[in-house]
Write the structure tokens for this entry.
Amino acid sequence: MPSSVFVALVGRPNVGKSSLTNYLVGEKVAIVTKKPQTTRSRITGVITKGPVQYVLMDTPGIHKAHNKLDARMTQTAAASLKDVDVTMMLFEPEGELTDSELTMIKALQKGGPAIAVINKVDLLDSFAALEQRKRQVADFRCFDAVVTVSAKDGTGCEELFTLLKPYGNEGPHYFDDDAFTDMPEKELVAELVREKALLFMRDEIPHGIAVVVERFKERPDKDLIDIDVDIYCERKSHKGMIIGKGGQMLKKIASAARMDIEELLGVKVNLQCWVKVREDWRDNENLLNTLGFAKP
């Protein structure tokens, strides 16, 4: 009998939610960088194993809001808990828990069910620290299981499917069995361009950028897609940095993005990137809507 399990992945920024989503899906559906707040909207990864379809919802990291965009991201993470059969909350293997994490745990104590996933065990030197974290998380008494994984090398990841399976509901699958995400190709393309900007640029600029695909057109006469992308930033000075001396930075971003986009689409791509200024868009409700950050 076919069944589906809807799973929310929540946790602090940079805890590895997107890396785990990509590992479990076996495809790159979520962009990954070492910078916090890389994930801005809810991203869906789909894995079908025989009769069971697992639908993973990778949410933005929970953190204190500094602007209207941050507030929408945190609302998206909170709203995801209501839509799922089970929540996987990811934790660092050691260190203090943040206020945002403790707030999320309180929400899980009222709601449920949930599984605690301690990630990054490949980085840990101290077995005692990990045992301490496991005890601490178990003491919250809102998790049905506490497991340890490494999204980087795959340790313990496959076992998560066995844990998640019992939370499923019988009924037809929501997605085609060969689907790996519900994100439109245009959105995936925009995210890949933003990922490269995050990877190559200094800390303060990338969070002030948004990427929108303005044209996505297959050529009728050959296997080629023309893609035009607008990169929006908040300051004129940022525009100069994104373009770089003689256009070098923009070329670097576009070239790296094009390679990933061609791999994703399985076809040659002609990618053109343009940089435009939209002052303080992260605090402008209308611009947030226009740039695709709808309220959850």
About this structure: Residues 35-40 have pLDDT under 50 and may be disordered. The longest helix spans residues 248-265. The CA atoms of residues 156 and 226 lie 41 Å apart. The first strand starts at residue 3 and ends at 10.
